[in-house]
Write a structure and sequence with these properties.
heterotrimer; A alpha/beta (438); B alpha/beta (501); C mainly alpha (337); A: 438 residues; alpha/beta; seven-stranded mixed beta sheet; six-stranded parallel beta sheet; globular; B: 501 residues; Rossmann fold; six-stranded mixed beta sheet; 17 helices; 33% helix
Chain lengths: 438, 501, 337
Amino acid sequence: MKKTNALKSAVALLLAGSMLAACGSTGSSSAAGSGSSSAATSEGSEPAAGDAAAANGDKYVIGIAEAQANDEVTIRRAYLENFIAPTYNVEFIFSEVLKDDAATKTFIENCINSGADAIIDMKSANGTMAQLCQDAGLVYTFNGNYVSSPELNSTDYTSLSGCIGANNEHVGSLFGDWLEENASEDGSEGFLISTSLASQGNTQHIEIAKALLEGLQEKYGLTFTKSIDELVASAETTNAENDKGILVTIYPGSPNKDTWLPGISTLLQSGKYQMFMSSGQTYNQTATVVDEVEKAFGMDIKVASIGALGTTLTTAFNTQDPNGNPSVDLVAVKTVSCMTACMFATTYNALVEGTESPAVRGEDNMPVYFTFNFIGITSPDQLAETTEWDNMETGSWIADKDFVDSMLVTVNPDITSADVNEIMQSLSFDKIVEMMAA
Amino acid sequence: MAHKGETLVEVRDLCKYFGVTVALHHVDFVVKTGEIRGLIGENGSGKSTVSSIIAGMQPASMGEMFYKGKPWKPSTMLEAQAAGIGMIVQESGTIANISVAENIFLGNYGKFKKGPLINKAAMVAEARKALEKIGVTNINPALPAGHYDMQERKLIEIAKCVYNDPELLIVDETTTALSQGGRDIIYRIMHEMADNNKAVMIISHDLNEMMEQCDTLTVLRDGVIIDNIEKKDFDPDDIKQKMVGREIKGDYYRSDNDGYGDEVVLKADCITTMHSLLCFDLELHKQEILGIGGLSDCGMHTLGRALYGLEEIVDGDVILTKSGTRIKNAQVAFRSGMGYVSKNRDTESLELNASIFANIASTGYDKNNAGPFILPWKEKTYVEKQIQALQIKCQNAYQPVRALSGGNKQKVVFGKWCADDADVLILDCPTRGVDIGVKAAMYQLIYDMKKQGKSIIMISEELPELMGMCDRLLILRDGAVSGEFFRKDGYDDRELIEHMI
Amino acid sequence: MEAAKTPTPKKEHVLSLGERISVIRQSRYFLMVFPFAMLAIIILIFTVATGGQFFRMSVFSSLFSQAVIIGTCATGVSFIYSNGNLDISIGSVLGLAATLGVMVFTATNNVVLMIAVMILSALALMAFNCTMSVVCHIKTITVAIVVTQIYGAISTLLIGGTGTIDIDYNVAVSLEDGGFRYVSFALYFIFCIVLYHFTRVGRELRFLGGNENCAQQTGISNSRATYISFLVTGLGVGLAAVYSVTNVAAVSVETGSNLGMDVMLATVLGGMSIFGGARSNAYAGILGALTVAALNTGLLMVGVSSAWIQGIRGIIFLILVWMNSERLALLPSRVQF
């Protein structure tokens, strides 16, 4: 018995050793690269010193802190690894799923130790991370907004390149316009609005909820008893009472929580709602419930939701309810490559020219809020056009080299942050169709 | 049908090593049909090892075995069972929280299967038959095994074994856990089997029992067969000498008649427990060895526990008279200078996974300290003294206790209480499962304690040791004292037994 | 089997290689030394693989930062584990203590008060858990499952709205780097080691964890020992609450989440069984936490892709746990059946 054990131990150790050795060898070239580039950054504490590294012919190393593991993250990773990295001679370190701020901090510290030059933070977005990067001379770019991270909207963080977030007004208008077109004249169908994290201050969710309520107000000329801000901030299920007696119900709560779906199901199963609008990505979660209710009541529930390009969306559009309509009617999708391109470009510009470059900061030298448009998709036909959009298999990206180049100081030395914002906010379904055709 | 005297099992050149420890060293022997073969030897002599190898519980390191003339190399107990070798083990072989019937047919559910379901009713009925076959009717096979006490659970194991009509039955240290009634059942089964030209191997420390029941005795010592003795040549002193390797006198009990003091050290004042005892009185004197005997269910074990504060006392008090301390729980008892050796050595008296060191040191936290800190060197002396004094056989003090043989385990238990220097010791079956060599040492130790002025309560199911050791002997029946006997008057075992039943 | 092929030991007992190894593995020092050796080897391997980059002060201080929260909790919890109890509520206790501390800090701007509130509330919460289990005779794990929900709900309620409350970054940094963390951790760690290994407390806990009946018969009080173990843990969790708030300059609804599992992992990697008993000690947790930190940092620095890190780390964990686990080949123990 013991001999077997000893033998097993030896084999196991050997295995572990060889595995580590293998990791070492595959990573050795990159480790060497990042090692020397870290030496370069540590020589000068200013992030601007990064361009010295570029001049040396070294690669920039950028750490990507991710909060989730979903389609978006997979697409972003493929885009950065397969397209950006070889095209612009940079290297990325991807985090595992970071469950809290402490994990983000650990990841950033490890990136610093690995010689990274910049961090793109999709998770934590707070002063602690910015300060950490600044102290170690790294450029810090984050995803989010300045409302929930107000401390970052200042010049104190010299290493902060900026914030990239959704153009919420535009997203709201997508929903508002859709409502205008699709709601009935008398508003008898009943409106259910899932406000997701709006009550907890999520700007995107607030904007969408607001746009929907304002849309209803405009369309039916009604007045809510409570103010719209109050309704949006409500942390519990609320009937938005109004003078026209139209049924509008607000349902807050994170769709990631276990309690979200049962709550929505109960409401839908009352059969009182034919319009279901969600500020989160929920169409896949609710598909079954919606289908059941449609069958049971013989009605057509119109569904509007945030979404992402991918198979689930294709299925949702191609699954028809009993009335021959697709099970989702409006999906506002994020174009991951465009958003990622913007984050990369801003980070890269800050690395090359320093964060005080006009390509990074605003005219007042304040950090800029870079925003990108969502794309509204309302029919299977439109969806069919998107098959080659951000297609990981074929490597066909919306944000191709031309698009990225247009935002880089190395190609357009005179570009400003306002220009970058303009490019990102010009995105629309038709524009992308045009871009892909070119 | 086998004929009497045919070779059933043959073991040739069998060796078993546990690392550097040799458990069996080139052992040869033959078990014949129609024979009751006794294996006898000190703890750790290899008798359990050899029988467990035959029964498929562990493989041999070397050597061959033959069963019914064919090579025999069972890889599991079930395989051995199917081939007709059944074994009743020393430790508990039942699982407490499944039913008696499930225990009996453990691993053999097949015949009660109806698709994915098990026909419980049929299983219970069959289990009842199995129990009746060994003459047991007071066990309900539908109840969980945990419902029954140790003796009854042993009977369940026996029923399980015998149900399969084994060709060879191995009984390993089972009788020590049984009362006379249980023993009689086993003896009857053994002899029935022998009469039907099957074979039995029995392992026991009880030399008298072995000499009475066995046809042949095989004496083992340190993994080597010392001798095979036919019934006609049985001589207790000779056997003992062969077992231990040195001469052991027939009388290893105390021979004096010193008496004891008048001072009462411990008093039970009309104590009533949830079970067994009703307004029970008892006085223990200084320097007294007070024996308590009776049938195993007479309440004497409960009494031991109650005196040490382990059993809930509904009414009445246990008092240490000198200090007036009322013993309301084991902590008070321990702190007031009492000690208790449980009859369940492995489950209550020892922490099996801990080292000998940790076990012995456990009574000395208040003695080997300076303020809140424990002084390791003091602790070391505390332990080593006992290991040497008791001659505990071990590689070093840091060996886990579970790796020791039964006798050495019991020495560790005694060691921790000797070290504790308790004034009042309650010993519940202190020599259970211990071979005569260790037994003799234990008796000497108990006697030495008495001489040092300690008071001892000795609870035992073995009358000879009570008679041999006690100054005063109480016989219990149904939770009450049925007779009191004094050493100075001499004991008459017939009279004792009369008071027991 | 293999064993059958071992050559017959002659009278003079020539040991085979396998036997020699097994003798070493069975040595009582093996389990003590092994986790230290593994940590040293991991550091060595990464130092070589990164060309020395790994062997830097900044990396080590980052390892300490990563390990200190889990390590502090695990040091405390080892007292609970030793006694054969499990408590997975420490994460929520930490979360609630941190929340209360931060709220007091927001109201008073007094750092000392914040630390005091965190430690005291962690102590109080652990004492409550313990009382529930001792007085009502509920298993600690059951209590832990219930209170985890309650404490988590209270934290979420108190933090409210955005899910985080920030504290002044400079205050956090001064606490983190100004010596408080190092000094308080060192004091707590030494306190635990002394209490565990040089007083009766550790011995009693181990004994209770190994065989409660036996321990009770030797005059050891289970409830007293249980209280001590929970209070020591409470102290550690309180300190860890301070560390975790100062680490990210905020408390959030996520603070402390998953801590219970991380602590178990660290304990096991450090060579101790979470089921307690004879081989328990008070330093396994911090060792394990350092090992996890070293692996995470090292693998990232070597350039292993994040997709691979999880898998490789998992395999290394398995190997470590397997090597650490106690598998003494013993004389026949028939209780197994």
